[in-house]
Design a protein that fits this description.
This protein has 360 residues and is mainly alpha-helical. 74% of the residues lie in helices and 0% in strands.
């Protein structure tokens, strides 16, 4: 406990709580405001789609499932199917994936001390892509796509971590280089599977790589929801440790914090939720890179506030992009395309017009 108070005192002396315009009271207000916008966006997404449904129908359907005042039999079967079985789990899954990628990006950026790092830097996306491609090309051997995608996504990061570890230490630069190497190897394996796949399998691989919530179900929500929720609270609780890790290994040791121990913990949790997210919905770019960066520009560098704000921004961003993906045209657009199209201009806008202070 004394170590915690000592470290927090160091953070105050660094100016984390005293930067003009970044008081803790203001940060809490911004977090509440972000939560309200997220709730409103989810409500709007529920009524938008090919089949128009009123907010009253949405309200009654959710009341029938969550309260004893209404019965499911009292509402239309069509409304129940569209709202409860299609749109609601899809929105919840988008929230879970957005939270997972955003907080994973915040963790990686804090550990690597670089705001341009993303959750896929250690090869999680390439490994998951290889596992998914295996499940698509060899469906009789791999009974699902999600399981091999999760396994190989986790193995890719583990391989990068083991490759970078030298004499009991894991230098940041070496870890990034190891991630690039492992990612390139798995990307080559994916290319081999594309070359040997049938036309149907190749098309499915390409669509999986573009990411999307086409087949979102309650099973997916139940699978990823508890993992993301637990990981979020653990990483949020370790936010002050992440602040110290972002100062560098030598400074962390000087404050009595074991950098290797906490790097392993936070990277493992970030990898876990990233692998879960990618295995369920494919590769969705920009969320893990852009949302933590935007959170730092709005709330400052303190990871105790960056992690929850990035989580809500990531969830909000994916809800908006998924709603656009399924409403812009008669056929659904892969959400990875929407996030990439909107991502780069939005990041440029933040850098040019909203970044009063850029914390690297």
């Amino acid at each position: 406990m004394s170590e915690c108070f000592q470290s927090l005192d160091v953070l105050r002396r660094m100016g984390y709580d005293d930067v003009e315009g970044f008081s803790e009271g203001r940060k809490v207000i911004i977090l509440i405001f972000l939560f309200a916008i997220l709730f409103l966006a989810a409500a709007v997404a529920m009524v938008m789609g090919a089949y128009k449904i009123s907010i009253a129908d949405v309200y009654l359907t959710l009341l029938a499932h969550f309260t004893p005042f209404y019965e499911v039999s009292d509402i239309s079967n069509l409304h129940n199917t569209i709202i409860w079985n299609i749109r609601f789990p899809r929105i919840i899954l988008a929230v879970c994936v957005g939270v997972a990628l955003a907080i994973a990006g915040a963790v990686y950026q804090g550990v690597f001390r670089n705001p341009l790092v993303e959750p896929y830097i250690l090869g999680a996306s390439s490994g998951a892509a290889f596992g998914a491609a295996l499940g698509i090309v060899f469906p009789t051997i791999f009974l699902s796509i999600q399981i091999p995608a999760f396994i190989f996504g986790s193995l890719a990061v583990a391989a990068a971590y083991m490759l970078a570890r030298v004499r009991g230490e894991t230098p940041v630069v070496t870890l990034i280089l190891a991630g690039v190497i492992i990612g390139s190897i798995f990307s080559a394996f994916v290319s081999i599977l594309k070359y040997t796949a049938t036309d149907t399998a190749l098309r499915e691989i390409v669509f999986w790589l573009m990411g999307g919530f086409y087949y979102a179900t309650w099973k997916d929500v139940i699978t990823i929801g508890p993992v993301v929720l637990i990981s979020f609270f653990v990483l949020w609780g370790l936010g002050w440790k992440l602040n110290i890790l972002s100062m560098g290994d030598e400074e962390a040791r000087g404050l009595g914090v074991n950098p290797e121990k906490y790097k392993l913990i936070v990277i493992s949790l970030a990898t876990l939720i990233t692998a879960f997210a990618v295995s369920l919905v494919g590769i969705i770019a920009w969320v893990g890179l852009m949302m933590p960066h935007a959170a730092r520009m709005i709330l400052g560098p303190d990871n105790r506030f960056v992690i929850p704000s990035a989580a809500m921004m990531g969830a909000l961003y994916l809800i908006v992009c998924d709603t656009l993906a399924r409403t812009l045209t008669t056929s659904e657009i892969p959400v990875g395309i929407i996030t990439s199209i909107l991502g780069a201009p939005y990041l440029c806008y933040l850098l040019r017009h909203k970044g009063r202070v850029i914390f690297g």
